Fold this protein.
Amino acid sequence: MRIAADRERCASAGMCALTAPGVFDQDDEDGRVLVLNAEPEAGDAEEAADAVGLCPSGALTVTEP
Amino acid sequence: MIPLETDSEDLPEGMPYLRETRHDPPAALLALQDRPLRRMKYYPDGAEGWLVTGYAESRRILSDPRFVTGERFVRSPTELPHFFVSSSEHVPPGFFFFTDPPDHTRLRRKITGALTLKRMKDLGPRITDIVDDSIAALRDAGSGADLMREFGLPVPSLVICEMLGVPYADRDRFQRTSNDIFDQVLPVERRSEAAAELFAYVRELVPAKRTDPGADMLSALAADDDLTDDEAAGIGMILLLGGHETTANMFGLGTLALLEHPDQLARLRAEPELMEGAVEELLRYLTVAHAGMMRIVKEDAEIDGRLLRAGEYITVAPHAANRDPARFDRPNEFDVGRDAQGHIAFGHGVHQCVGQQLARVEMRIGFARLLAAFPGLRLAVPPEEIPLRTGMFIYGVDSLPVAW
Ligand code: HEM
Ligand code: HEM
Ligand code: SF4
């Protein structure tokens, strides 16, 4: 699976880091999303898919299943 | 061209807000769940707009930039008077809750760096100290004491004061004014006075924060060249208000819900690892921000084949959406073991609660320590005698006498 994050849309809500801590983090500057692992596998991929659905701002997308 | 639909002759008049039970949304509201997006009439002028009770529909609307908040609201979705009767004069500068992107984005990003999940986890030990001090105060007050007064209100107030750098000793000035702002039953004049008082209070603190800064959020806002002092004060005010009232009500109402569901309480005591999920379930089941999230249609938009016209009002009922049977099994059951993630108790879209990771940490620690400290926690009065905050923006209990 491949994940992309649009930092311009990100609302820094932290749902991604909460849901998939192995895949996402937030930066220290203004809390916007940082992708730690753009090609998550197995459990991380499941959590990442949940995070994509939960993100309130539509900043996250799955670019390859 | 999609015709402007009318549902039927008898449109609901406003969003029902009077509750029959302590924990459930009004029956009249849940009765409207059969149509997740429907037209309704608004008080006080009877103009028509939209009511959203469905989960999927709520998420779509709250995350769609065609539905905005920055316009001034003059209509209330309940028969209670609306705060912004006619003018924008009550909205303080920097108060980004009522702004839209790009201004909203600029202002919101001034504080999001200080509220990340990581930072909130680092605050854990300090929050634990504050929680334990409040538990000690509750114990000292003796069996029969008010949990809201000794624990529910002090914990989030102390935490947000420390983060912002606002003296807790001044709490009389902000707890009463916040309460008045959120009290929909008070005359609108009193509520706008209270908003002005609260703004003036935070505004007074700003110059000193610049000349003599501390390691707190208000000092960082005051030092930011990109913000006027008024904007810094407006952002400080939104955090002070949002930071204590909501979490406090989750503590009061959440404790009541646990005590009234002894099987769930016993399960949570026996399996403390359920706490994280239990907090999400409490958020879903209770949805204390029950006044309805309002948006205005900026440009004509089609949702599920229906035309929402520019200028029309939309009220999303998150407490109904969080009980949508299409999304949650047995939605009206409180179940600490369920997966409640995805609930919209913190809203959705760009305004989704900026303090949610703080609130989560406060609630996880707060409920865990409270239950551990009082193995025999129980209500000190019959549940029917607990005063409920039906007419408040944020639902909850006024007081919660407990024994142990
Ligand atoms: C945790 C943060 C907050 C929550 C959950 C919350 C919740 C709500 C909700 C659900 C509404 C109803 C409609 C809408 O979305 O516009 C509302 C309106 C309003 N809120 Fe808040 N709010 C929060 C923060 C604040 C703050 C910080 C203030 C500070 C003054 C505030 C003042 C108001 C006012 C003045 C209204 C309009 C009320 C009326 O016209 O009667 N809110 N709020
Ligand atoms: C359990 C506790 C809380 C609940 C249920 C809650 C709920 C909400 C909801 C529903 C909204 C969105 C309102 C809308 O879209 O119209 C919101 C926004 C907001 N909340 Fe919270 N909140 C809580 C705790 C906090 C805390 C602890 C803080 C402060 C640190 C806070 C600060 C805010 C602010 C500033 C906003 C406005 C965000 C924006 O407009 O971008 N809230 N909250
Ligand atoms: S969940 Fe979405 S909005 Fe929130 S921090 Fe992650 S990417 Fe940003």
